[in-house]
Design goal:
The protein is mainly alpha-helical and about 220 residues long. It has a two-stranded antiparallel ribbon with strand order 1-2.
Length: about 220
């Protein structure tokens, strides 16, 4: 199923949001760095006004932080904050998976399969932005089902708040490979309708990413 937050931009503000997301994912804007609105506007071919609105939208997601009289900065997360977010995801995603799994039809499972294949292709090519987008589609498709609109809204918010950190994770070649194998196991569990195994595979996948990110965050800056 399509994630509405990843549709083609329809407005200048959405174009600015997409441009900022690309800068964040590519590492051109890194945690703790000040966002120069004029530079972003020039990069996106826009005026400053839609960039300012886009930054306000990303502030609501937790991706940037506004500091009075200083401007917007890419949000920095301590490991404790990151772990808290992942623990919240675990609770919400298990609820969503157990609700959705009995309702997943063949069309949705094909979408999950295709997203997994796109992840694998992007991983092999080292295309981090493409892998992040496919990875998001893969995971959210497993949870899309009627009757849990609020749960999915919260899950998307938690995903958005840590997208920069997933980009760090997928910039490691060995983790791109590990993620492809994890997705294969997740797909098998979903197709077999085994909720306990599916939840366990997702928990393991999430925990590995968190362990790797702890090492990245603790690594001394060059």
């Amino acid at each position: 199923m399509n994630d509405p937050q990843r549709r083609a931009p329809a407005t200048a503000q959405q174009h600015a949001v997409d441009a900022l997301r690309r800068l964040l994912v590519s590492g051109a804007l890194r945690p703790g760095q000040r966002v120069n609105q004029e530079d972003v506007a020039a990069h996106a071919g826009l005026s400053v006004a839609p960039v300012r609105e886009a930054l306000r939208a990303l502030e609501q997601e937790g991706q940037v932080t506004y500091r009075p009289r200083r401007g917007y900065f890419v949000t920095e997360l301590a490991y404790a904050d990151l772990r808290e977010i992942y623990e919240l995801r675990q609770v919400l995603e298990e609820r969503a998976i157990r609700h959705a799994l009995p309702l997943l039809g063949e069309e949705t499972l094909r979408e999950v399969d295709e997203a997994a294949r796109e992840c694998a292709r992007a991983a092999e090519a080292g295309e981090v932005a493409a892998e992040l987008a496919a990875n998001r589609r893969f995971h959210l498709a497993l949870m899309e089902a009627p009757g849990q609109r609020q749960v999915l809204r919260l899950i998307r918010l938690l995903w958005d708040s840590t997208e920069v950190y997933r980009a760090m994770y997928y910039n490691l070649p060995e983790e791109r490979t590990a993620s492809v194998h994890a997705h294969d196991r997740i797909v098998r569990a979903a197709r077999e309708g085994d909720a306990d195994r599916l939840v366990g595979e997702l928990d393991e996948h999430r925990e590995r990413a968190l362990d790797v990110l702890r090492e990245v965050l603790d690594r001394p800056a060059d």
